[in-house]
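pinging the channel bc i need a second pair of eyes. not urgent but kinda urgent?? the chain im working w is below, pasted from the shared doc
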Amino acid sequence: MKLFPYAHATHPQWRMAAALVLAQLRGQMALPDHARAPSLALLYITDHYAAEAQAILEHLSAELPEVTDWAGTVGVGVSANNVEYFDEPALCVMLCDLSPDQYRVFSGVAPLSASGRAGTSGFVAHTALVHADGGTPELNELIAEVAERTVSGYVFGGLAGSRGQSVQFSLGSAGNLRGQGAAGGVFHGGLSGVAFGPDVGIVSRVTQGAQPVDRERTVTASDGNLVLELDGEPALDVLLRELDISLEQPDLAMPRLRATLVGLTLPHPDVDVELPASGPHLRGQFGAEVMVRHLIGLDPGRRGVAIGDLAPEGTRMAFCERNVQAARADLIRVCSEVREELEPEELNFAMASALTAAEADAAPHPARRIAGAIYVSCAGRGGPHFGSPSAELQLVRRALGDVPLVGFFAGGEIAHHRLYGYTGVLTVFTMPAA
């Protein structure tokens, strides 16, 4: 396995952006330490190009005949190493140097086999990159079903993010189910992605973007999306006290309520395998087991709080808010954990946290056990949220090193076997040390 060629460009005309991307890819494919003829491509476009998705896929696949399999989706922004294109026409591509017998592109017309069962080709999925349409019915159940079809039970990826058409790219050389007809490789709705075999080295981490306002409590009474009691106390009373607001002063209360989220930890989580197990999180920060959801309403009559998910009794819940400093620290933490796992003799957590911009702009860091990386970040984290344009991806590069990386800004992030919000999901493909 060699380094994954990757490229990115922005231009009002997609053909010009595609030409720039192709030139970059061909230049890298000519380098001795990069893959020369990879067969799997990941393609991410911003929603400015969504209407031209089919034309873009056909053009790129024609120009790169050695690439037989394509996967990807649309986002309100796309990213690459050290740069993000948010709310502008852009695309990025990464060519993955993986053996064709170690991955399978899947979609509604080419589904995965059940967990542990080999398909007609003998392929068994160990984990999977998943792209999904946020409007798909019973989406959480479908994500969990895909995870169940992998040996590890771990999937990663995100929901398509678009203000117009929501598209996914899924074109596989293994073909589709009989009776589905010819597929153009562009899909609307449902789930698609790439499953990876056990010989594909992957390390994945979830980074949170919210910080708890106060301590975690237990849901002691609920009715669907309405949380009625926390530790035996009316949930609305707890919320108002923690935020130090009153409904009698709506002008002061409403801005604070709009900025408030909830972090949920399920009472009896399913068996959850992370690749590898995450380390301890810092005090005052959420771990990867916490799912952040919106606060969607109040019920003064029942003294309840409505949230954007179900919270059965026994669920642990904490009110929280987005916090840039906490998000920055947690992003550096997960990048450092990845580096420490791959190269513990070179870089520990403290050293990675102390990396400066000057070091990042120097010669590429010798992180050559990372062949490529995918970073899926919440659309709510994109743009200037981290302080300046591209600041989030610059943090990733400083902590992770100068490695091939592409990604997109999603309408929701997928990791483990569930859907997250306001998070980033970083996944790296590893190769043997030189």
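so Residues 225 and 309 are 6 Å apart (CA to CA). and The first strand starts at residue 6 and ends at 10. — does that match what u expected or am i reading it wrong
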